Amino acid sequence: MTTEKRQILVTSALPYANGPIHIGHMVEYIQSDIWVRYQKLRGNTCYYVCADDAHGTPIMLHAEKRGITPEALITEIAQEHQADFRDFHIEFDNYGSTHSTENQSLAESIYLRLKEKGHIASRNIKQAYDPVKNMFLPDRYVKGECPKCGTKDQYGDNCENCGATYSPTDLINPVSAVSGATPIEKESEHLFFKLGDFEPMLREWTGNNGQEKPVQTIQREVSHKLKEWFDAGLQDWDISRDAPYFGFKIPETENKYFYVWLDAPMGYIASFKMLCEREGIDFDTFWKPNSQAELYHFIGKDIINFHTLFWPAVLDGADLRKPTAVFAHGFLTVNGNKMSKSRGTFIKARTYLDALNPEYLRYYFAARLNNRIDDLDLNFDDFVQRVNADLVGKVVNIASRCAGFIVKKFERTLASENTEPALLQHFIDKGATIAASYENREFSAAMREIMELADHANQYIDEKQPWVVAKQEGQEQALQEICSVGINLFRLIMLYLKPVLPATAEKAEAFLNCPALTWENRHKALLDHQINKFKPLLTRVDEEKIQQMVETSQEDMAPAVSGPLADEPIAETIEYADFAKIDLRIVKITHAEYVEGADKLLRLELDLGGESRQVFAGIRSAYEPKSLIGKQTVMVANMAPRKMKFGLSDGMVLAAGPGGKDLWILEPQEGAEPGMRVK
Question: Rounded to an integer, what distance in angstroms lies between the CA atom of residue 679 and that of residue 565?
Fold first, then answer.
């Protein structure tokens, strides 16, 4: 690995300014931030920029629904996004917005340059038009069946199942997500970017010309997908939208606006330009065509086509440099399933932050991430075990086992000699392997190496038994030396974890009373050095807080009242055999009461026709307990019991409604009896 200092610019995909950040988004930002922090730790010049993606019809419609301007909405969302990122220790060098003068200037100048070179075409097209709202529908506001693979409930621009891209008018059984009406086709003149002009360049840049490259710009899995698109033929890209639209007006047109996917990636450049103007950085060093600086985009696998085809082609056509590489990652699943509002696993970043330490999630993601595009699963049981065992049981334990003796018996002063040079050198040498794993985005491999070192350090302490030595007369120097070695091993482990746990590393530096930990100073042991009193750096994960987080997410994501089917579309079709597995029974509520410490729950006792069940139901906002006693309702009788901190919930009662006061338990007609099965 080269020791020459590098100049690097890193971006993450721009979050859309139409809603909150959730933990699925955080996979990307945590991955990017760890890699950037590692580069800075090595002494490289590395800038990390991002911005809110602040244009498009969804933002316009959301603002209209709220009764505010789009500008007011994106300002509000920007503050929320930046607070979430800050509290997750995501350290951007600049965070901007695509709705900025810098971005408008870039979008206009790049477009005009492309037009001048003949890369822009104009023609009339038929578009999906909402006859109720009297507006052309953006791709994501038309849903239907994929014309390639037949998957239902897909957006109008690309299929999440097979990856195909298409026009909304190609969808089978399309529906307007704005009004629920069937869209009609209406003709309009649109502007197109001639992507096919750049096919030879794109084949060479992506490595799809069959030649190996010294630096692979895309992952192997992405290369296979791109080959399919190349073989199908590169289509012209529609870059304009009709009014009404919130965005930048296209120069030399009357009522055409830049499609959000044209000006959004330009936000990378605009955000960096803001940083350059503020810090006096040479912009051209990073963006001129022959730039030797490195440029990396971290993105999700769902936007590969935009970043590996359209974006490099636009840059090339505008005489700007192309990315060094594009790093794609998979989606987040929770407990083996897609994030679910009903299960409470569609968790907002702020909901997580209100419950748990952000560095728990940073470490867990790091321990699962590699440089491929595999989906990453957040399993809560594994999450608790891994954080408690690794960070608290191994890493923090090293310092806590040694610090007390140094503070109490040696006036906080470490030994003046390193009595285990071979052991310390082994830890230092491991830095090369760990560095290679960080560099290659094999974070899980880096975490395994670091935890093996933590095991080694704890084994050393177990073998030396300082608690025994402390009781032996005349062994003061030996005790000081043993504990000093332990503290120095801990220091190296915290250095290696610093990109992942920046806040904990800062606390460790305060405890060690040492300069900021860097790769270059790892060789210098702390000798004849005073440390500070040790304070717990991390505490064990509280499982009750995870449960509370899940419950809060279920409540937070309850849909608002505005047309049941529009707010919560019908789920995917199931077979009768799937339904037959659910055992629905009539029950009578014999007792109901509030649950102390639970704002949303009622404890119900249910008569199942000779059998009694206890169920905790989230209906407190809609019912007084006494009003329920004697009523009959329907429950899922064969659901696995759920252990809660209030007791065992053995089943689930059924209710309809979006939440809050608008909830209604299902009540059977007269004649139904407890225990009867609902078929």
Answer: 24
Length of the chain in terms of residues written? 679
Model pLDDT, residue 209: 63
In the numeric block, the tokens 């997500």 are attached to 177
Q: Per-residue DSSP letters for 207-251?
A: TTTS---SS-SS-HHHHHHHHHHHHH-PPPEE-EEESS-SSPBPT
Q: What is the DSSP letter of 390?
A: I
Question: Can you spell out the DSSP letters for 279-321?
Answer: HT--HHHHHSTT--SEEEEEEEGGGHHIIIIIHHHHHHHTT-P
Task: Kindly state the tokens that stand for 47.
Answer: 């800038």
Q: How does pLDDT run across 582-623, given as a tens digit for each residue?
A: 999 999 999 999 988 787 889 999 999 889 999 999 898 888
Q: Which of 500, 496, 417, 404 is nearest to 456 (CA)?
A: 496
> Token digits for 562?
């505005």
| β-bridge mates for residue 125, sequence order | 188
Per-residue pLDDT, 565:
53
The kind and range of the H/E element at 662 are: strand 662-665
Give the whole-angstrom CA distance, residue 388 versus residue 381. Answer: 11
> 140: which DSSP letter?
G
Helices 220-232, 199-206: axis angle to 10 degrees equals: 160
Helix axes 101-116, 266-279, angle to 10 degrees: 120
Neighbouring C-beta atoms of residue 319, cutoff 10 Å: 12
Could you give the CA distance from residue 305 to residue 72 in angstroms, rounded to a whole number? 31
User: Do 186 and 242 form a contact (C-beta atoms < 8 A)?
Assistant: no
CA angle, residues 605, 610, 611, in degrees to nearest 5: 45
Question: CA 17 from chain center: how many Å?
Answer: 15
Q: What percent of the chain has pLDDT over 90?
A: 74
pLDDT band at 657 (very low <50, low <70, confident <90, very high): confident
Q: For residue 144, what are the β-bridge partners?
A: 154
Where residue 561 falls among pLDDT bands split at 50, 70, 90? very low
Helix (H, G, I), strand (E, B) or coil at 593: strand
Q: Partners of 238 in the beta sheet?
A: 192
